[in-house]
Amino acid sequence: MFDSIDAVLLARIQFAFTVSMHFLFPAFTIGLASYLAVLNGLWLWTKETKYLDLFRYWVKIFALAFAMGVVSGIVMSYQFGTNWSVFSDRAGPVIGAPMAYEVLSAFFLEAGFLGIMLFGRERVGPTLHMIACLAVAVGTVFSAFWILSVNSWMQTPAGFEIDPETGQFLPTDFWQVIFNPSFPYRLMHTVTAAYLTTAFIVGGVGAYHLLLRRRRGQSAPEATKTMFSMAMWMAAIVAPIQIFLGDAHGLNTLEHQPPKVMAMEGHYESHPHGAPLYLFGIPNDAEQRLDYAVGIPKLGSLILKHDPNAPVAGLDTVPDEDQPPVFIVFWAFRVMVGLGLCMAGLGMWSLWARWRKRLYDAPWLHRAAVVMAPSGLIAVIAGWVTTEVGRQPFTVYGLLRTAESAAPLDSPAVGASLVAFVLVYFAIFGSGTFYILRLMSRPADANEPRLGSVTEGPTRTAGITPAAGAASHRSKDRQPGE
C-alpha cells in the first residue's frame, strides 16, 4: 500500500509524528518541574499547607508526564540510525557531542534526583529534598539547552568545516557549534513557551474546579484558588514577554533564513516599497501567489524592518527547488501567533478581574481559562512545525538536503514502521494521557495524600515487601526465644 509513496516523505512523516508526540510531554514537564520547586520552596518558607497540597497534587501528574516523555524520546535516537542514517553519518561529528552531553549532564541530573523529589521528603530531610526539586527543574532546562543547541545548529550551522573526501561536517570551534547564531533566541523562546504551556494547563485545571464548586454552591479550597492565581500571574507577566521574544526570534530568522520568513508571511512576490501583513490567505505554490489574501498595507515591512516603506524580498527571488512548503508554514505560524495573542489577552483579563477583586468569582474568565488550557501545547507544536517545515528542503540549512539525508530504505519498510508507531503511541500514550486527565479531574483537596500513599504495591527494587499484616501474624506465632 506504500509502494507509490516516496520513502523520504514517509520518513519525514514518521519523524514529525514521533517528535510531536514526544515534545508534548517535555513542553509540559519543563515548566511543571520549576512550578513544583516554587511550591516546595513556598511550603518551606511559609508552612502554609496549601502549597504542600499543591505540590503533592501536581507531583503525581509530573511523574507520569516525565515518564512518558522519556519513553517517547527514546525513539528519536533510533530514527537517526535507521531512517536518517546518512544524516547521522554526515553530521554526527558535530551533533554527537552535544547530544551525548545532554544525556551525561541534564538527563543524569534529572534521573539522579527524581526519586528523591518524588519519595524523599520524609527520608532525606527538607534541605536535601529542596535541592532535589531544584536539581530536577534545572535538569529539565539544561536538557532543553543541549537539544535546542543541536537543532539550532541545523538551522544556522557554524563552527565547522566539511571534509572534501567524506562530506562529513567536522567541528572546528565547539563554542560556535553550541552558541550558533539562532541558539539564544530559540532557547529563550522555547523555554518561555514551556512555562506558558504549564501555566495554562495549571490555570485550566484550577478554573475547572472553581466552576465545579460554583455550580455545586460550594466554596473552593484555598489550594485551588492559589493554583489559579499563580497560573494567571504567569500568563499576565510572561505572555507579553513571549511576544517580544518571538519578534526578536523572527528578526533573527529573517537574517539567517529569509525564505522561511517569506513563507511565514506569504510573500510570494517582492515588495520594493513596503510589504503588507497578510492576516489570511490561501497559499498557491503552483501559481506562486496568495489567493484570497487579506492584509494590512505596509505593516509587514514595519514589523520586519521597523520601517513601513522598507523593501522586502519575496519567494520570487528564491529558486523553486529551495522554497519551503508555504501552505503548512503560513498556517502553522498563524496558529502559533494567534494563540499567543489569546494567551496575552487572557492574562490581561485576569489582571482586570484581580483588580476588581473578582478573580475567583468570574465564571466567564474561568470558562475561557478551561478552553485555553491546551493552547500552550497546540502553540508549541505549531511553532515546531513552522521551524522545521520552514527549513525544508534542508536538514542542515543550505548545506545538506533532506532527500540526501535519508537512508536508502524502501517505502513499504518505512510505511510499516510508521503504522506501528502510530498504533503503539496512541495506545500507550493515549492511556497515560487519559489517566493524567483523570487525576486532574479530582480537586487538590486539603491534606493531599503523598505519592507513596497512593501507589499500589512496593516502591523498592529489592523484591516484594511482606504485607504488614502478614509480618505481624508471623511475629505473633513465634515462641519466646525463637
UniProtKB/TrEMBL annotation:
GO terms for cellular component: cytochrome complex; plasma membrane. It is found in: Cell inner membrane; Cell membrane. The keyword Metal-binding applies. The chain crosses the membrane at residues 23-45, 57-80, 100-120, 127-148, 192-211, 223-245, 328-352, 364-385, 414-437. Residues 448-482 are annotated as: Disordered. Keywords: Cell membrane, Electron transport, Heme, Iron, Membrane, Metal-binding, Transmembrane, Transmembrane helix, Transport. One of its GO terms (biological process) is aerobic electron transport chain. Its main location: membrane. It is a multi-pass membrane protein. InterPro entries: Cyt-d_ubiquinol_oxidase_su_1. GO terms for molecular function: electron transfer activity; heme binding; metal ion binding; oxidoreductase activity, acting on diphenols and related substances as donors, oxygen as acceptor. Belongs to the cytochrome ubiquinol oxidase subunit 1 family. PANTHER family: CYTOCHROME BD MENAQUINOL OXIDASE SUBUNIT I-RELATED (PTHR30365:SF14), CYTOCHROME D UBIQUINOL OXIDASE (PTHR30365). This is Cytochrome bd-I ubiquinol oxidase subunit 1 apoprotein. It comes from Tropicimonas isoalkanivorans.
